[in-house]
Design goal:
With 102 residues, the protein is an alpha+beta fold. Helix 1 crosses helix 4. The radius of gyration is 13 Å and the shape is globular. The termini are close together. GO terms for molecular function: protein-disulfide reductase [NAD(P)H] activity.
Amino acid sequence: MQCMCCSAAAKDENGESWCPYCVKAEPVIHDALKKAPDNSHFVHVDVGERAYWKDLNCPFRKDPNTHLIFLPTLLRWKQPQRLDGERCSNKDLVEMMFEDED
């Protein structure tokens, strides 16, 4: 079983994220999810509004389990594999993240 976590910027009332990298990565990640192993778990976490995220004391930045610096961030929970920023919109890299670990 693998657990994937994606941290991304919150969306406004029109469903648009304030983070351009999140907007670009979202369809790539959702497409790759279709190819994920059946025993996978995917958790999507919104980090909030831009001002909240930009605060260096934001709890998402301080969390020792995620070490978030960039948005979006795609990671395997408690594993070294991670993608962040523009790399989350690279189809080949994202699909590799969703491949079975076996």
